[in-house]
Records
---
Amino acid sequence: MLLETYQHRSFIKQSGNILTTLRSRETPFELGWNTEIRAYEWLRQQYQQHRVRLNRQHALIWAWPQSTISYPIVPHTDRRVAIVHLWLDVPDELVLLMNFEAWAIPLMGARFMEDDNIPIERDWEKLFDEAWLIQHEYAASDDWLDHQAVFPYVDRAWIKRIKYLRCYR
């Protein structure tokens, strides 16, 4: 699957052919919300159920089928951060796709359905049911522009293009 991701420049400077990110960088904005942390942990569990087992020390890599954002989504604290924009061809069996807009529901700790009899984690599984999301207006369409993906690592062989950037905020 052709995907794009933004990473710290240090990501591409790792030795070896397998590139990973530390778990400490898993939550992009480090807001410290308990609901945010719970959603990321739930997503890791979902990834392992639907794809492969994850290394506990490594974060999931976030990517998009096309550039749907006007600025890089990269966790950082420095005003000037050197980053890389990577174009990748990731094996489909490692990619877990989800709706970009609908991800906000688990991230906020909210529910898709108003049924408190269903555990919230079961409710969040609607994130992967594209037809249900569209029918209930949580997603505009099944267009690729509305998707994002996660996968466990980058193999250098998957890199098709690299663009070096500096992010000013």
Note: The beta strands are 2-8, 18-19, 61-63, 80-89, 96-99, 147-151, 154-155, 159-168.
---
Amino acid sequence: MGIIVGGGLIWYAVFLATKPAPTAAQPASEAQLVREDSHRVTATSTEKAQLVEFLDFECESCRAAAPLVEELKKEYGDRITFVNRYFPLPGHRNSGTAALAVEAAAQQGKYGQMSGKMFETQPEWGEKQDSQATLFRTFAQELGLDMDKYDAAVADDKTRDRIRKDVADGTALGVTGTPTFFLNGEKLTLNSEGQFRQLLDAAVK
């Protein structure tokens, strides 16, 4: 099923103009789940599993899940590699803009700081229909980024391509909403925090 771009969602049309969604979900593979440039947000001493999250910085459910994910990173981060991938949804006016800002910050080694800032401030800018690019730029300034490099990265098609690639992979893997988690290649259906921990416990045994 292709992605339908609604009125006002110009950024999404730009993101996917050269990367149409596949007509059907393809089998998950390591190459699609985790790529060389994917953001690995934990450094394991002995990797026993990988947990991949497709996320949208304007998604309220992603924001709600973020504190738990942070707890899990502290508990399991020495054994499980946590990987974040972009999946801005077409119904969110500024999710693509936020992903661009985060990726621009990531190019200066500030992925974690900028992604955390997005979720922290989401109530201020989420659901708004006007571009929040100026606000996101102030976040970059607060993080002490080189603003010339930041502006160049935001404007660079390569930065958009980086996000398009995550969207294309997510779509191929059957991702339709956020957050979506894959544990060792298996798409999770989560009903509770306890179930999440049980799955991680089983993965690291």
Note: The first strand starts at residue 39 and ends at 40.
---
Amino acid sequence: MPDVMSRLIGVGMGPGDPELVTVKGVNALRGADVVVVPVMDTGERGRAEATVLHYVPEEKVVRVVFALNERSDRARREAAWDAAGERVAGLLARHACVAFATIGDPNVYSTFTYLAQTVAELVPGTVVETVPGITAMQDLAARSGAVLTEGTEPLTLVPVTAGPAVLKEALNGPGTVVAYKFGRRAREVAEALRDSGRLEGAVWGSALGLPEESIRPAAELDGTPLPYLSTLIAPARRDGGRGSKL
């Protein structure tokens, strides 16, 4: 074991545009001994890895397989998590500082949360830190012109993987609603927007900042499946004029 206490740093890489990684995030990547990137068992390069490679040399990157696309077989998913945690624990036994790159923010629906819990059990005393990253909803708001919140409006973030009922409940409430991971349930999302009267002004986007970027009005959703990591913004109802919700 290293003489100094090991550090595991979750670094938010943003939604995919390498220009949206913070200076602190870049410094964390460059200051770490190794940078772990999550890889699906298919082996293809993910967004986190592609973004990391803009800032650190490939020989510093360690690819660790996670069951990122496994949602039905819990035993298989748990086995993959255990194997990934043991791999990172092994790296911490040899290195004082290991960075883990995750898309978006490490504290928002992130792979890093589960990894940190596993590593903390395997390597007691490990210091766990995070560096925040720009989220997909922030990037989509900037690229589309949608305003996330005004005045006293609440903001509700819903993963559509939790089921359409959760989204419908949010849309029937106040404030802006953001939906993550809705691509495979695009038809149900479109129906929920129409039924709640929240279709006007809503916008969705995928592959933000990448060559295949798509940003469209939600009114154009026709039920065709979209990329899994699609993001939806349904702005709050604002009919009281400027500053009416202050």
Note: The helical segments are 23-31, 47-52, 74-94, 111-122, 136-144, 164-171, 186-196.
---
Amino acid sequence: MPYLRTIALAAFLLSASALAATAQTPLPEAVAAPGETVVLTLHAEGAQVYECKAGADGKLAWAFREPTATLLLDGKTVGRHYAGPNWEHIDSSAVVGKAVGNAPGATANDIPLLKLTVTSGRGTGILSGVTTVQRINTAGGKFEGACDKAGSYHNAPYSADYVFLRRG
């Protein structure tokens, strides 16, 4: 009987460690933030806004203009994400970031994963002291190709998770 219990315990531990390994897929090095602590993770639902404009070659093409998204926690709106890029929490704290690393999304239609360094912030709420923002688990948001009329816009729906971190 002790032999069967040992085998059962070993099988349980192996399956639990396999499950934990699958649940925590490591981020690509360009997006990882080793040594930083997660402050908050928010889900975003919104659109990547593109504008039809002439490229360097004079041909019209869709160019990224800005994001616009609602930030959610447990299905409830707790903030917004917009051009800058800016993230604003309902407690009036906010951060602005600058992209410093990226990695491809899961499919060709997904915007890239990003690592952003916070360049400024305001307020004393939950985002106060955040030094890095990661955009992970992206779905959708890419839009490319020729367009017909300069100055026209297209919204490409997307979702992502934004992880707010601080050093230390």
Note: The chain is about 15% helix and 50% strand.
